[in-house]
Every structure is written in structure tokens, then in C-alpha cells.
Specification:
A hairpin with a 5-residue loop joins strand 1 (about 1-5) and strand 2. This protein has strands at about 1-5, 10-15, 25-30, 35-40, 45-50, 50-55, 65-70, 75-80, 85-90, 95-100, 110-120, 125-130, 130-135, 140-145, 155-160, 165-170, 175-180, 180-185. About 0% of the residues lie in helices and about 60% in strands. The chain is globular, with a radius of gyration of 16 Å. The termini are far apart. With about 190 residues, it is mostly beta strands.
């Protein structure tokens, strides 16, 4: 099953059991424009461009239902989830990294935000081991500590040859879609 953030179409659930003929098996109508989705433990977390994090119960893929939402106050574009924390990137004239508590998915809580560069510069987001990894196009990859959720702290920047267009984090490395090198693999524990 694949979860799709379908812009103004809300959230769609697509079965890929037959890869040559994917089929929609469920959906839920949501207000706003859904830009990104992360799924964990039977809950989908959607970044709504209209400035919200929306939570949807997807434990039964054929009958998803909205649980709740929280307003961020800026356009929201991306979301990544680990444990009871979500990290979103949002923007007005500046890009922000927002940290949210998901202990109760029906009532997510904004814990804090930190400025993350120029608006429009963030291309991808991942979270792993209490750190957020932000693909920042020409500003390459940025690494933030989430140890103090009310104030995410930038630990470093760089690590790629070209523009960072997306990022995924594994247990020991971040994998970056690098415009010049194809893929850049960043050791998360190098000194």
C-alpha cells in the first residue's frame, strides 16, 4: 500500500499488489493542499500547504479518517517523523524547521521552530536519531540537532558536491540526491 498526498484531492491509499495495475483502495477528503506525507504506526502525517500538519488514521487503508490537525502559521511543504516527533519545513519570506510532539496524534503540538534559510530553498527533509537533515538545494545539506525541540540548532552545512535535492537518513548515513554527483553518502558519525 502506498500513501499519496494528493494536493487538493486530500489523501489517497493505493494498492500496488499488482505493480502493473495500481488501484486506489481508500481516500479521505481534506481541506487545504496536501504537499507531503509521512506514515508511522498506522497514522499518516500530512504537510498541508495552507499551514497545517494534518493527522489521519490509516490503520484500515480502505477507511482512513482524519484524527486532528495543528496550525503552523506558515505555508507547510514537507514532513518527516521519528517516534513521537515530527519535523516540518514551512515558509513565509524565510524557511523554518518546525518540531512537533506527536504523543497524541489527534492533538499534535508545536514545540518550536528555527529559521532555516531562504524561502523556497528547502527541497527535502529526513529525521533520524534526534537530528534533522535538510536538503537545501544550492546551500547543500544542513544538519540540525533536535535535542532542544523548542530551538532546533544547526550543527553543520555542506557535505555535497552539488545542489542537494532530497535526503533520506539511515542508521549511520544520510543519502543525498546530489545534482552534481548523483548520490552523496554522508557519514553521520564522522568527527
Amino acid at each position: 500500500v502506498v500513501d499519496v498526498a494528493d494536493g487538493r484531492g486530500g489523501r489517497k491509499v493505493v494498492s500496488v499488489a499488482n505493480a502493473s495495475a495500481p488501484a486506489q483502495v481508500g481516500s479521505v477528503a481534506l481541506s487545504g493542499i496536501q504537499r507531503d506525507v509521512a506514515v508511522q504506526g498506522g497514522v499518516a502525517y500530512l504537510a498541508d500547504q495552507m499551514g497545517r500538519l494534518v493527522t489521519v488514521d490509516v490503520a484500515t487503508p480502505t477507511a482512513p479518517r482524519q484524527l486532528g490537525a495543528v496550525t503552523i502559521g506558515r505555508y507547510a511543504y514537507g514532513v518527516a517523523v521519528e517516534g513521537t516527533r515530527a519535523v516540518m519545513y514551512s515558509a513565509d519570506s524565510t524557511a523554518y524547521l518546525d518540531v512537533l510532539d506527536l504523543a497524541t496524534p489527534a492533538t499534535p503540538v508545536v514545540l518550536g521552530s528555527g529559521a532555516g534559510g531562504a524561502a523556497g530553498g528547502i527541497k527535502g527533509l529526513a529525521v533520524r536519531g534526534g537530528r534533522a537533515f535538510v536538503a537545501s538545494a544550492a546551500q547543500r545539506i544542513r544538519v540540525y540537532s533536535l535535542a532542544t525541540p523548542s530551538a532546533p540548532t544547526q550543527l553543520g552545512i555542506g557535505y555535497t558536491v552539488g545542489a542537494a535535492n532530497d535526503v533520506a537518513a539511515g542508521s549511520g548515513a544520510a543519502f543525498v540526491a546530489d545534482a552534481a554527483a548523483g548520490i552523496a553518502i554522508v557519514d553521520l558519525y564522522a568527527n
